[in-house]
Amino acid sequence: MTERGTKVNYLAHLGKDIPAGLVVFFVALPLCLGISLASGAPLLSGLVTGIVAGIVVSWLSGSELAVSGPAAGLTVIVLNGIETLGSFEAFLLAVVIAGFLQLVLGFLKAGVIGLYFPSSVIKGMLAAIGLILILKQIPHFLGADDDFFGAMNFFQSNGRNTFSELGHAFSSIEVGALIIGVISLAIVLLWDNPKIKSNKVLSMVPGALVAVLLSIGLNLLFVNFMPELAVASTHLVNIPIISGFSDLGTELQFLDLNALTNPSLYIVAVTIAIVASLETLLSIEAIDKLDPHKRRSNTNRELKAQGVGNMVAGLLGGLPMTAVIVRGSTNVAAGAQTRVSSFVHGSFLALSVFLLASLMNQIPLSALAAVLLVVGFKLTKPALYKAQLKLGGEQFIPFIVTILAILFTDLLIGICVGLAVGIFYILKANYKSPYFFHKEEHRDRELIRIKLSEHVSFLNKASIVLTLDHLPNDSHVVIDGESSEYIDYDVLEAIQEFKKTAHERNIHVELINIGDVAVMDMH
Known about the structure:
It contains 21 helices and eight strands. It is mainly alpha-helical. It folds into three domains: about 10-370, no CATH class; about 385-430; about 435-510, Transcription Regulator spoIIAA, CATH 3.30.750. The strands form three sheets. A four-stranded mixed sheet has the order 3-4-6-8, with no helix packed on it. The two termini are about 25 Å apart.
């Protein structure tokens, strides 16, 4: 079921969801491993979380397109948590407790917080993620990066930063990796061509799959015939080889209940729960903006799903998880339609651990970097900057400040800075004009009139969205902005998105003096 009460035919979209899930898998595989490495955790722990997120959380999630997994934004928290608690086994107990706290937050309906993130900040976050993906993947694309594949922070573990790493990369190019990267990028771009998309056979095969398989073949050719071009093992995917349950038992670690008496355990658990929940709500709000069908996710259900996911992951020896914007945006860009794509990605992660590890370990990271370069560009298209600039300073300044803050710090700090700037403009706009929201129903209850007040600010977005989401099916809704001198862009966007999808609930929408807005498009 979707949040608007319409049934989803999951079988009808398999032709798009399975290829999309495969693309997300190729992106998620090195990210899971890289984040484990950066967190000081066992290499398999990130894959465990990715598998649980795909196979379990996808069906519990409040979103059709979000994809969960271990998040780069939590690496510092995980690293410090393991050090504080003295062992990874004790940290796993904190992950389970954090999951329980998230479950409680879901039942307390704390997901409404997601509606209070300004549109300019969310779009700034998406654009920043796009820029970071491009900047961070160029060194891997060149075969010259010794930092982990999932790195997202400005300052890196090897002492360099995002920009100094680029200088180092261009002075240490690995020619074989670059050749593979260029060919992979060309294939991914070619597969975006309308002629390929219109071909029934080729459109069923993800461009990323073709690029990855060809990259493996090219590297094998280099190894056998041109060893000087062979990609170094440090620039290949590296999954632990599991040949049986004994190996699995050796690789996995399980929680230590003795840590229950340690007061620090609960501080770490609360920290994980808060940060993971915020990152999830931010990602869900961003993915909703990218969704071509403009479905609105159930954020309370998402918090419950994340809670269950973290409890299961902690019990199985995995890292904490969140809904991850890199995976989610890749999912949308790959053409996913439903949660099946996330499930497919999790299933392939499980297969890669138990059956395909040897094959996966032959994939050059430069080929996977090529996939992320395309995703990054789609998130930070020049058209997005132009559109935000046209909206004026109240939208553009928080947008650009969010981008710069995320680019030079990390996701959560950048979002906080962007929110602070956004709130300044909101308070400035609300200084003189109060807001009044009035809903009028006719006696026959078939016509619902929503009359907006003189000044409608972003602060009113949550109540308006909730009102629209709970309007009865088969009704005629009139949204009247005739008396409004100012309607905030975020509110206009919410109203227009409601109008676009109202027909799914057989609601006829009539807008009076409500301006149109441009809605972000990934395609």
